[in-house]
Structures are given as structure tokens and as C-alpha cells.
Amino acid sequence: MHLIEQNAAIAPITGAGLSNPLQQQPSLNIYQNTTTTGTNIPNGLCAKVQSTFLSRTKRHYHRSKSSHKNMNSFRTTTSSTTTADDVLLYVPNLIGYFRVVFTVTSLVLMLTLPQYWLLATALYVGSFVGDLFDGLVARRLNQTSTFGGLLDMVTDRCSTLGLLFVLANSYKDQVHLQLTFLFLSLLDISSHWCQMYSTSALGKHHKSEDGNEGRHFLVRWFYKYYFFFGYLCVGAEFTYVIAYALQFTQNTTIHSLLKGILCLVIPGCFMKQLVNVMQLASACYAVAQYDAEVKNK
């Protein structure tokens, strides 16, 4: 009996629409003190709900803003731009600076303190050996740069010209040798300058295969085949170095050794001068050909 009465008491409530969980319930409007059904809500409850909503919204906004700022900072860190200072401090360029110091020091010692000829020779050879590694380091560390190529070329040319100047000064009593060193200096600087200029005008690298397309075959071989390139460069530089050292090794066992090495490297020196002549002629012709193409456009 009591159970029937309880069910009867509950029935009006379930009939009011609460028995269906999917039926839309009255939604609360935080900006007004009434529900969508028009039922009044106390002002205190409305203010409390509105304050809670605004507080949570502000926290979410500041959290999102902070996260966005951190993400921008991360992107800036991981994708930082390279500056000129960075390029100047590339590892291969640091090697280039040491080469400059070694070369200048060796040339000064050769001219002013000939008694330190062995140290001067070692410094010059050290600078030359550094030229073999700066390019390898640049490619390994992905630090190749136009500035590095410029530094390398200028150091090479100034080193060779400086040593030829020292040799011309050392053999003052032999005019034919002085003239030889003079013409070797002029040929070296003019041929390499024209080679650099002619390829740069075409937007190419002076050692690249497409930059030397149409040049004399000796020039193409020189820049294409590393062994040929290496032997000629080593042959030329060591011919000059040995010519300097022979002055101080008279009547010693090392004198004969140096002469033996000279016989091995001097053919490379002669071939290098031939390549320089062809390089000068080919580069000048390439520039003239470029001028003709521009005129005919």
C-alpha cells in the first residue's frame, strides 16, 4: 500500500519531463538572472557563475598567450639567421686567418732574420698545408662561403708573390733569376685574377666544370682532376721553397736531399706555369666573347 502511494507521488514528477535524459534542459544565461524557460535565478548565484566563467576565461587566455610566446621563442632559437660575424668565425675561415699569420711571419723572417731560415720555411710550409684542409673542413661542417673562397685565393696569391719577392732579393747577383722570379710573379697574379673575373662575370665558380667550359683543356684538367691540380700546386710551391732553402744548406747532407726533391717537383712547377699561360689566354678570350654576346643582343 505504501509502495503504491510512493509510486503515485513520484509519477507527477516523471511526467514533468525528467524521465527522458536526452530531453533538453533549461540552459543557464550568465548575463541575465533568468533561464531560457523564464524561471528567475537569484542575483547572487548569477553573479557567482559569471565571475567563475570570466576567471576561467582569463586564465585560459593568459595560458594560451604564454604558450604561443614560448613557441615563438623556440622557433626563433631553432631557425636563427646567420650573421656576417658568424661567417667570419667559421672554422675554415679561422684556419685561413692562421695561414695569413704564418705566411706574414715567415716572409718577415726570411727578409730580416735569415738565421731563422728553418723556422721561416716551416711556417711557410705550414701555411701551405693549411690550404689543403680548410676546404675539407668547410665541406664537412657545411661552412662553405664566398668570403672563405676569397680569403683562400688572396692568401695563396700573396704567399706565392711574397716568396718570389724574397727569392728575387736573395739572388741579387744573378739578374736572369731575378727576371725569372719577376715574370713568374706577374704571370701568377694576372692569370688567377683573370680566371676569377671571367667566371664571376658569368656567375660561376672559378674551379667549377661549367665555369671552365670552353677553356683550354689544360685549364679544364687542372680544375677537374684533383691529383693533377695537387701535383702542380705542390710542385710550384716546393720548387720556390727549396730554392730558398738551398742557400743555407751548402756542404750539408740535407743539401743533396733537397736537390733530389727538387728534381721531383720542378716538372710540376713548369707545368703549372704552362697552365697559368693557358688560363690567362682562355680567361681573356672568355671575357671578350662575353662582351661580343652582350653587344649582339
Automatic annotation (TrEMBL):
Protein's name in the database: CDP-alcohol phosphatidyltransferase
Main location: membrane
Annotated GO biological process: phosphatidylinositol biosynthetic process
Topology in the lipid bilayer: Multi-pass membrane protein
Keyword Transferase: yes
Sample GO molecular function, one term: CDP-diacylglycerol-inositol 3-phosphatidyltransferase activity
Pfam families cross-referenced by the UniProt entry: CDP-OH_P_transf
Annotated Gene Ontology cellular component terms: Golgi apparatus; membrane
Keyword Magnesium carried by entry: no
Cited PANTHER family: CDP-DIACYLGLYCEROL--INOSITOL 3-PHOSPHATIDYLTRANSFERASE, PHOSPHATIDYLINOSITOL SYNTHASE
Similarity section: Belongs to the CDP-alcohol phosphatidyltransferase class-I family.
Organism whose genome encodes this protein: Nitzschia inconspicua
Keywords per UniProt: Lipid metabolism, Membrane, Phospholipid metabolism, Transferase, Transmembrane, Transmembrane helix
Bilayer-crossing regions: 87-110, 116-137, 225-246, 252-270
Subcellular location: Membrane
